[in-house]
Amino acid sequence: MRRLTVRTGDGAVLAVQEDGPEDGPALLLLPGQANSHAWWTGLRESFELTRRTITFDYRGTGTTAAAEADWSTMSFAADAAQVLGSLGIRRADVYATSMGGRVAQMLALGSPGLVGRLVLACTSPGGRHAVERSQSVRRALADPDPAVRRETLLDLMYTPAWRAPGRRSNLLGDPTMSPRAQALHLRASNGHDAGDRLGAIGSPTLVLHGEADLMVPVDNAHRLAEHIPGAVLETVPGGRHGFFDEFRDEVSPRVERFLQE
Fold it and tell me: Going from the N-terminus, what domains does the chain have, and what CATH number goes with each?
């Protein structure tokens, strides 16, 4: 993996990771809330034989250095655009999951010429068009016991069949984050609202979702597909919030086929 940094206009230093052939078509991978590029470990490899995969650590995660501020999905999208521009990439396909899907919506709206084909997985439009998780899920995620919160996350991400002894997930959050940075990420994700603007997304879009997702209910996928012109919607029976990881052997090839269309 090639590692480099991109300095932004406000002084942040974004940690960027690349892999795959440098002359291959660019694929930007955007992770979920409170996670670094490590979210894509074990997943990006499916695309690296022919594609130039690009990730970066959001502010507050990984080795990116940035002052804590009022971050938003729009500001994270601006960082993504700067990363691509600094790498000399004029157009990239985007595969984005969870909060990353919200960031990708803002990127496609704010920099339409930069986004080629777009894959939005387990995400939502935000605002009045979003279907929020239940209060019981919210309470479980806010439990004061870290062990309880971890078990809740695992249950929300994966089916019982996945949870074999010793199995590890890369989707449970960046352990190096400060509590303040975690709170800022939550605020950014919760404050996302692209619903009334989704009709302006011109990128060919595939919307993917697990049908048993309680973190971001599957109704959000239907609303995204209804509002993004020409979007294709596919759901995974039994899939939870981490369906793209649990069922990677089926999901990643489907994403690749869409990117090649």
Answer: 2-260 (3.40.50.1820)
